[in-house]
TrEMBL record:
Any one GO BP annotation for this protein: phosphoenolpyruvate-dependent sugar phosphotransferase system
Record organism: Thiospirillum jenense
Gene3D superfamilies to which the protein is assigned, alphabetical: Phosphotransferase system, mannose-type IIA component
Gene Ontology MF terms: transferase activity
Gene Ontology cellular component annotations, sorted alphabetically: membrane
Domain of life (superkingdom): Bacteria
Entry protein name: PTS fructose transporter subunit IIA
Domain PTS EIIA type-4: 2-124
Keywords attached to this entry: Transferase
């Protein structure tokens, strides 16, 4: 039994993140599903679809939902699922976050959520221009 991952994102952002992470690692070590949100989609229909995905993929280990932008429609859909037991939500989805999830696929939901959060945050760095004197 492993935690399932649901990526709820704008358009194809989640699909591309999943594709990149899977290619980097050579496989996808857990159940991962993408729900793309377009501007013409009905949020209520998407919420029902997301709930169906959660119910279908949760084997009892829980579901980690990652979404791209806090406060946006994908994040709002995800936030409506947080009242369900065994569901955690992180926003700010990025490739380091997803790779961290896949590298720690054996963890329980709480530990995986923490690893994913730290991986996403630690994967954002600023390069400073070096001074040449």
């Amino acid at each position: 039994m492993t935690v399932a991952v649901l990526i709820i994102s704008h358009n194809q952002v989640g699909a591309e993140l999943l594709n990149a992470a899977t290619r980097m690692l050579g496989h996808c070590p857990l159940t991962a599903t993408v729900l793309g949100v377009n501007e013409t989609d009905d949020p209520d229909v998407l919420l029902r679809h997301a709930l169906q995905i959660v119910e279908a993929t949760d084997d009892g280990s829980g579901v980690l939902i990652i979404t791209d932008l806090f406060g946006s429609t994908p994040a709002n859909i995800a936030s409506n699922l947080t009242s369900r037991p065994g569901v955690e939500v992180l926003t700010g989805a990025n490739l380091p976050m997803l790779v961290r999830i896949f590298n720690y696929a054996q963890l329980d939901l709480a530990a995986m959520t923490e690893k994913a959060f730290n991986g996403g945050r630690e994967g954002v760095l600023r390069y400073l221009q070096s001074s040449t004197s």
